[in-house]
Design a protein that fits this description.
Elements (H helix, E strand, L loop, with lengths): L6 E4 L15 H14 L3 E5 L7 H9 L9 E7 L11 H9 L3 E7 L2 H6 L5 H17 L3 E7 L1 H7 L1 H14 L3 E6 L6 H14 L4 E5 L6 H10 L4 E4 L13 H11 L7 H4 L2 H12 L16 E2 L2 H9 L17 E2 L7 H10 L9 H15 L8 H12 L7 E12 L2 E12 L2 E9 L2 H13 L10 E9 L10 E8 L4 E8 L2 H20 L1
Parallel strand pairs: 1-2, 1-8, 2-3, 3-4, 4-5, 5-6, 6-7, 7-8, 9-10
Antiparallel strand pairs: 11-12, 12-13, 14-15, 15-16
């Protein structure tokens, strides 16, 4: 039996861009469009193309035609006509036509409160506005999605009128009618009752558009689908105004893998993690480690008992196989971890350990000692890999430090930092110096300068994040610090750690691990 199709409608480029921390450029919007097309969502809402007002969105609809998308339909978004306008003279409706998309979405009022106190018109006039706006777009051969704004608040206030607004949209020929929980205040039991009622009253295909103000946007979207709705509107990573929109990164796998619906192809599910992180990168937002499905820690296991169970049965502590959505399992090595955690993690990194071997027990003791000194391997897989490499094989370092010096100097009221290092590479002593924006950047530049003729591949490596944590504040400025450095070569991202009472030394230790990991990876 073929599973039921649920249409995925992405509004990251419009509703998602209303997030306080997000500001997409035109080029950003086009890059995201290509990624969403790769993901094979059904609809991509590009923005509100008001000529002379929303210049960026208006230009987007011109440029997007040149992308030659293969899977998704681009949607232009706007509102019903203004109360004082005729449809033929309404600038919003005509801007939608000028955008020249096959599909358009318009929103209209369904809450009496808005009709009377915001639009200052009668309920009957509002119904006429909805009807004429949809008919005008249908007369111009458009697929029309009608978004019933503030529907759930309107229904709770006056269900008879809210349903009338949907009925008039249906009569006017809307292809989809989407109910919007615009204020995000609807509870699951209300969503269940209201969507069942609407499904019985409206025969036009129904959609759901929820906001996350009560942290229920995903749950409420799934309830609507359970009750017969066939379209879900949302954003990648839940971007959106206030608390955000329904997160498609959680909704798509829930519908596909847990509820048995047809959303995007199985091959596209594997791109979820990549696309989630890609759009965080475009938005210049660090991905939350604990984001469901695609977060770095979504399938991370810390307690030893969990790792032991995972060695025996992977389903024991995971709700899905992370590889299906392009993520991966992580066993964290910490002071809470036991032998099973280390065995699992070592196996993941290509090392074979035996539970009863003394080597394994010695490694656990060493790791716990380092953790007690301030090391944190759960956030630094690359340093753990190097630790295992040094302890389980004949490891020969790529270079040997012979000396380093960092100088801060003020020149004309500006502070300059210079690092000088001496390293030995393949029996050759290399002595270099470089400036940087602070000591770590100067050390990084000097080390690269020394190594690049021996190891050209480090040219593609760069530092993307740098964190410093005081381990014990009671010692004041003499306290130990832990430095975490995140690096990338545009293929992979890895994190290394260094600990010392001296922040320069802690940074150097993390930096050396980062470079050595890159060289080991290439080798």
């Amino acid at each position: 039996m073929k599973s039921k199709k649920i249409y995925i409608y992405d509004t990251t480029l419009r509703d998602g861009a209303q997030s306080a921390r997000v500001n997409f450029s035109l080029e950003d919007k086009l890059l995201i469009t290509k990624k969403l097309d790769e993901l094979r969502v059904d609809f991509i809402e590009g923005g509100w193309p008001m000529k002379g007002v929303n210049t960026k969105d208006f230009e987007y609809f011109k440029r997007v035609k040149k992308l030659k998308l293969k899977n998704s339909k681009i949607v232009a978004f706007g509102s019903t006509r203004r109360a004082k306008n005729k449809v033929k003279n309404d600038p919003v409706l005509n801007s939608l036509l000028e955008a020249d998309t096959e599909v358009v979405t318009i929103f209209g009022k369904t809450w009496i409160l808005h009709v009377k106190n915001v639009l200052h018109i009668t309920p009957e006039e509002n119904l006429q506005i909805i009807k004429e706006s949809i008919e005008y777009l249908k007369d111009n051969k458009k697929i029309v999605i009608y978004d019933a704004e503030h529907f759930f608040d309107g229904y709770k206030d006056n269900p008879e009128y809210a349903i009338k607004c949907l009925k008039i949209a249906e009569q006017a020929g809307a292809d989809f009618i989407c109910l919007c929980d615009t204020n995000g205040g609807t509870l699951p039991q209300e969503m269940d009752m209201i969507t069942m009622d609407i499904f019985e009253n409206i025969k036009t295909p129904l959609g759901i558009h929820t906001h996350n103000d009560s942290e229920l946007a995903v749950a409420n979207s799934l309830i609507a689908v359970k009750n017969g709705f066939v379209m879900v509107q949302g954003t990648i990573n839940g971007f959106g105004e206030r608390c955000g929109n329904a997160n498609l990164i959680s909704i798509i796998p829930a519908l596909s893998l847990k509820m048995g619906y047809d959303t995007i192809p199985t091959s596209s599910l594997k791109k979820l993690t990549e696309i989630s992180h890609y759009i965080y990168e475009i938005a210049n937002i660090i991905p939350p480690d604990n984001q469901p499905y695609t977060g770095k820690n979504a399938f991370a296991h810390k307690a030893g008992v969990h790792a032991d169970a995972m060695l025996k049965e992977e389903k024991a502590y995971e709700h899905i196989n992370p590889e299906i959505i392009g993520n991966s399992r992580k066993i964290l090595i910490t002071d809470q971890a036991g032998t099973s955690s280390l065995i699992y993690k070592a196996k993941e990194m290509g090392f074979k350990l035996d539970k009863n071997d003394q080597t394994t027990k010695d490694l656990i003791i060493k790791i716990k000692k380092l953790e007690s000194e301030g090391y944190e391997f759960e956030a630094a897989d690359a340093s753990l890999f190097i630790f295992l490499k040094k302890n389980l094989s004949h490891y020969k370092p790529f270079f040997e430090l012979k000396g380093l010096r960092v100088i801060n100097e003020e020149r004309n009221s500006e502070l300059f930092t210079e690092a000088t290092i001496k390293i030995k590479v393949k029996d050759i002593l290399e002595h270099t110096a470089a400036e940087g924006n602070g000591p770590v950047n100067a050390l990084d530049n000097a080390l690269r300068k020394a190594l690049i003729r021996f190891y050209p591949s480090i040219k593609n490596m760069r530092l993307v994040d740098f964190k410093v944590r005081v381990i014990d504040g009671a010692d004041g400025t003499a306290a130990k610090v832990r430095v975490l450095i995140e690096s990338t070569d545009n293929k992979d991202i890895w994190t290394t750690v260094g600990v010392s009472e001296n922040i320069i030394e802690a940074s150097w230790l993390a930096l050396v691990d980062s470079v050595e990991y890159k060289l080991l990876k290439d080798k």
